[in-house]
Amino acid sequence: MLKHAAFCSLEKVDELECIQIKHPKFSAQICLQGAQLTSFKSKKKGELLWLSPTAEFKKGQSIRGGIPICWPWFGVVEFNPEVVKAGIQSNSAHGFARQLPWKLHSLVESAHGISIALKLSHDENTLKIWPFEFELICHFELGNDIAINLTSKNLSSNSMALSQALHTYLPTEDIHKTRILGAASGDYIDALDDWVLKKQQGAICFNQEVDRIYLGANTYRVLSPNKQLLLTSNSHSSIVWNPWVNKSKWLSQFPNCSYQNMLCIESSNTLNDHIKLASNESHSLNMQLTGIN
Ligand code: TA6
């Protein structure tokens, strides 16, 4: 498919094969490992994603930045609902999809943008970790903005349960001057305070580590000194995260000061918003990221 493409090419970045997209409206990079969009730079609106200055492109290791796909579980296994935990033979966080090689499934190029999909299916290795047969397709619509559709299909004869997140890293010139609107009425679970349920008062601001699961909210407006971003999704749970000073000191692929220039808003299906699929049933998690100015 790429041989005859006008705007897309396959290039090696360290150990990984990545699809480089150079379109009149934008440039982008999608790594086949994890179907991870690591960069999207719109001609009109600039870079919409954050990639760590020390991001590594190594086989089997998630890349710090862009949009890692956390699937078929989000977070650490133990904090997942029992029905999601059932059958998982792993204690790594955020599932296995982001560390495996996906295949190019479809590509359509036009003057308006690029529609590209990558696919991951079960194999003997995934079945050892998670005993379900599946097809996972991540469809990117890239043009002025980013739209992602992550579709899970249960190919097993049994029903399956999963949690997931599009773990989007966003840039900011200064986290201290960054606010997020949209969760004001939102209940959230504070993962840093014994997972207690709290109520968001006003805008989300950053003056400490933040690791919160917002329930219900799925439209966020990020206001930073010279960029406004709008992130929407069809999910009813989303995580807002910034590691702040202490966690930044031990996070992999993460310079100590980088907490000042990034935040994560992760469109997810987690906790009570997890997904149950009967045999042959599918579910799609959708997310849109737009630069407003
Ligand atoms: O989504 C928030 C979070 O679960 C944080 O607790 C932090 O661990 C972050 O994800 C990054 O996880 P990773 O495994 O990519 O280092």
Polypeptide structure, described:
The chain is mainly beta and 293 residues long. Helices cover 5% and strands 45% of the residues. The protein contains three helices and 22 strands. The strands form four sheets. Strands 7-8-9-10-22-18-17-13 form an eight-stranded antiparallel beta sheet, with no helix packed on it. It has a seven-stranded antiparallel beta sheet with strand order 6-12-20-19-16-14-15, with no helix packed on it. A hairpin with a 3-residue loop joins strand 9 and strand 10. The structure holds 6-O-phosphono-beta-D-tagatofuranose.
Give the count of helical stretches: 3
Strand order of the largest sheet: 7-8-9-10-22-18-17-13
Largest beta-sheet details? 8 strands, antiparallel
Q: What structural category characterises the helix and strand content?
A: mainly beta
SSE blueprint:
Elements: E1 8-13, E2 16-23, E3 26-31, E4 36-42, E5 46-47, E6 69-70, H1 82-85, E7 103-109, E8 114-121, H2 124-129, E9 134-142, E10 146-154, E11 160-162, E12 164-171, E13 179-181, E14 187-190, E15 196-199, E16 210-215, E17 219-224, E18 227-233, E19 237-242, H3 244-248, E20 262-269, E21 275-277, E22 282-291
Antiparallel strand pairs: 1-2, 2-3, 3-4, 4-5, 6-12, 7-8, 8-9, 9-10, 10-22, 11-21, 12-20, 13-17, 14-15, 14-16, 16-19, 17-18, 18-22, 19-20
The structure holds 6-O-phosphono-beta-D-tagatofuranose.
6-O-phosphono-beta-D-tagatofuranose (TA6) is lined by residues 62, 75, 93-94, 167, 211, 239, 241, 264, 266.
